[in-house]
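U., I forgot to send this yesterday:
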Amino acid sequence: MDIERDLNDALRRREAPAGFASRVMARIESGEADAPAAHPERKPWRAIAAAILLTAVLGGWAAHQESERRAGERARDEVLLALRITSEKLHEAREQVNEIGTNH
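Result:
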């Protein structure tokens, strides 16, 4: 599939079909050009597909945000544990230094 070639083909200038201008002018004169065109190609499945896609995107974004929040909480808990362990080890070291100082 060559997207550039397909795009060039789609955008290539073509001659209008025979009688196109006269049909357009007749429609303008009859007032049909002002009426909204019927769109039989519009199907309800497009709206449903768009709603499903939007739901999936928003759901994915919310799940990602929740995952990030949990990761942040986990990191905070790990830092607090590390600080608590460090504090305990420093307290033990201080006691040992004090004990050595009182024995001499």
